[in-house]
Amino acid sequence: MYGTRHIVSDVMTHTVATVGRQAPFKEIVGLMRDRRVSALPVVEGEDRVVGVVSEADLLPTEELRDGPPREYTRLRGSAGTAKAGASTAGDLMSAPAVTVRAGATLAEAARVMAREKVKRLPVVDAAGRLEGIVSRADLLDVFLRGDDDIAEEVRREIVSHLLPPPDSVVQVEVHDGVATLTGRVRDTALVPVAARLVRAVEGVVDVRFDLAHGGHRTDRDTEPTDRPPRGDRSALPSGRAATGRWNRTARTARRTPPPGTADRRSDHEGQGVDHTDLPDRGRGRDPGEGGPDDAGLLA
Predict the structure, then answer these.
(1) How far apart are CA 67 and CA 69, in angstroms?
(2) 81 lies in a domain?
(3) In what helix (H) or strand (E) does residue 108 lie, and over which residues does it extend?
(4) Which of 108, 142, 176 is the last residue of a domain?
């Protein structure tokens, strides 16, 4: 669903200088200088990595070469003393080698480096054969990624899936690797999830949010608000007041007979039935003629 992360094989150096177990001290130093590297994998057989020899492994020889006797006493019995007298890669190297697979993510490689306190990792296959080498500098290359490229990935791979419109409206801006998301979201519980996903995008240095809670706007949100609250019809438009069904005054007027006109009510008056607006019940008689039923009303 989300963008493919960069892996070690994307940034590692594929052509690697190596030495064998029997490589002499001076050959190791010369190869480091010529290749401008600070460490060399030690291999045997079919390029199977058995160790790494680094500048740190070579320094004890120089440190103790003309040092005072007390330095020998301080380092007696330590690995530094043993390496000070070593002359081949097999004796100088740190073993076993700390390695990483080509398919590991950059974050995984960085965690291995931090945990093992090393500056580079030989990259090996399932059989332990050398495929390349990755350094701290290689891992940091992702932070040189352009801001526009980062912003586009955040919009395409995260926002469009996790915070899609119209329920949420989110804008993404990236400046110097800092991603800022602004707008409004329907479900604020998704914000921490978005933060974690955005932070995982290669090249993102930090994530900032300025998101308000709110669902998407609909046509109802833009309807006129001149309709009065329920139960209050005083503010109805004049046309509606004249003909609207909520006009109690109009109903009352229909129920009130004109002045001088007898109030004609049926025997059902006690039941609240209003026949004021019904046709005359004289069944074809002239209302002015009266009748047995009207005798009491016209008297």
Answers:
(1) 7
(2) yes
(3) helix 106-116
(4) 142
How many other CB atoms are there within 10 angstroms of residue 145's CB atom?
17
Q: Report the domain count for the chain.
A: 2
Consecutive H or E run containing 291 = none
Q: 25-35 and 55-65 are packed helices; what angle lies between their axes, rounded to 10 degrees?
A: 120
pLDDT tens readout for residues 102-142? 999 998 999 999 999 999 999 999 999 999 999 999 999 88
Q: Return the ∠ at Cα 16 (arms to 92 and 22), rounded to 5°.
A: 30
CATH, residue 63: 3.10.580.10
Residue 286: CB partners within 8 Å, gap ≥ 6?
A: none
* Prediction pTM value: 0.57
Q: Is the backbone peptide bond immediately before 96 cis, with ω within 30 degrees of 0?
A: yes
| Residue 286 covered by a domain | no
* Same domain flag for 96 and 190: no
CATH number (domain holding residue 183): 3.30.1340.30
Residues 127 and 162 reside in one and the same domain: no
Coil/strand/helix, residue 151: helix
Which tens digits make up the pLDDT trace of 212-270?
A: 987 655 444 444 445 555 555 554 444 443 334 434 444 444 555 555 555 555 444 44
